[in-house]
Design brief:
The chain is α/β, with parallel strands linked by helices. The chain has 2 domains: about 1-130 and about 300-320, 3-Layer(aba) Sandwich (Rossmann fold); about 130-290 and about 325-340, Dihydrodipicolinate Reductase, domain 2, CATH 3.30.360. Helix content is about 35%, strand content about 25%. Helix 5 (about 105-120) links the parallel strand 6 and strand 7 (about 125). The longest helix is centred in the last third of the chain and has 20 residues, at about 320-340. The chain is globular and about 55 Å long.
Length: about 350
């Protein structure tokens, strides 16, 4: 922390200087209560370049970053298989952590991280920036208010496209050990989180998966039938082999209305008894992440880091804490277990 006159600001270290780190760094630089203390990457050249571009310190090791007294929060932006171990090390060093999705690749690692954070009295957050879009907040309130009546269906469609070159880069994408899964784990986890957030917890899931297009170890297409605890039914469709890709679509149907989202935009809102509904004024940037992982809207990261800082100050709770990150992972792993066994799976059973 730094005392900059009339306010205390929080120092952030960004670990991993790949594509996603630029959204974290950009968000940190936009927030008055935050500053970039330094960066680290195993690729020292990438770290030095990033540090020079942003006027920050370049750490020579991960341990050096954790020993920096200016660092209050560590952003884990490394490949998925490193998330849990690096986050646990940061927590043991007394740092709060904001972990890119997924929180971990195994539920046991989530539990260890969450338990450590409780012992150390620090915060653990999982990046799910889509929850912070104004349109998502509006739909969440509608669901809480029962605007649609009893929910009948909740369907999630994520027909994305990724090239073979995307998987070949870095040597970890598309592998069981290091990526933990394919279209549902890597690309689909944000949609899965939104589905649970808006429609509620899942009672059971039955999934089929296949690798149809890419030379990878994990699925590039998956379809699942979902039963929700509130009685609604739905489907999840996820792929990375559907050229040219289509925006994520989430459809919520109830006994007296329907709300449909494409990416973070409300494209349909029709409720029985309402004379009409002018679509929510949406200022969200148009994204093309369904076909280009670099084309996402950075405003969600700004809002999520602002929420994180407010939680550090004790002003609010984290909207997406470690437990929330665990829930999304649990549903994905349940889908994989179903696809492997050919039977419906009850998450948490």
């Amino acid at each position: 922390m730094e005392d900059r006159g009339d306010k205390v600001t929080f120092g952030f270290a960004v670990i991993g200087c790949g594509l996603i780190s630029r959204f974290h760094i950009g968000a940190i630089e936009e927030i008055d209560d935050a500053f970039l203390a330094g960066v680290y990457d195993q690729n020292l050249e990438a770290a030095e370049k990033t540090a020079a571009e942003h006027g920050a310190r370049c750490y020579g090791s991960f341990e050096e970053a954790l020993s920096d007294r200016e660092v209050d929060v560590v952003c884990i932006c490394t490949p998925s298989f490193l998330h849990a171990s690096m986050a646990c090390s940061a927590v043991e060093a007394g740092k709060s952590v904001l972990v890119e999705k997924p929180l971990a690749l195994r539920l046991e690692d989530c539990d260890r991280l969450i338990g450590l954070a409780a012992q150390k009295g620090v915060q653990v957050g999982t990046v799910s920036q889509l929850r912070f879009a104004p349109s998502i907040s509006k739909v969440k309130k509608a669901m809480q208010d029962g605007t649609l009546g009893r929910l009948t269906r909740a369907d999630l469609y994520m027909k994305y496209y990724r090239s073979q070159e995307y998987y070949d880069q870095g040597g970890w994408r598309g592998t069981v050990e290091k990526d933990g899964g394919g279209a549902l784990m890597n690309q689909g986890i944000h949609g899965v989180d939104l589905l649970r957030y808006l429609a509620g917890p899942v009672k059971s899931i039955y999934a089929l998966s296949a690798t149809r297009v890419h030379d990878i170890e994990v699925e590039d297409t998956l379809t699942a039938a979902v039963s929700f605890c509130n009685g609604a039914l739905g489907v999840i469709e996820a792929s990375t082999g559907d050229w040219p890709g289509a925006p994520r679509r989430l459809e919520l149907n109830g006994e007296c209305g329907v709300i449909i989202l494409e990416e973070d935009r409300i494209v349909k809102w029709e409720v029985e008894g309402e004379k009409g509904f002018a679509l929510y004024e949406q200022n969200e940037a148009q994204t093309e992440s369904h076909r280009d992982p670099g084309k996402i809207d950075a405003s969600g990261h700004v809002c999520q880091i602002q929420n994180f800082i407010s939680a550090l100050r004790g002003e609010t709770e984290l909207l997406v804490d470690g437990q929330e990150g665990r829930k999304a992972l649990e549903l994905i792993l349940s889908a994989y277990a179903s696809a492997e066994t050919g039977r419906a799976v009850v998450p948490g059973a």
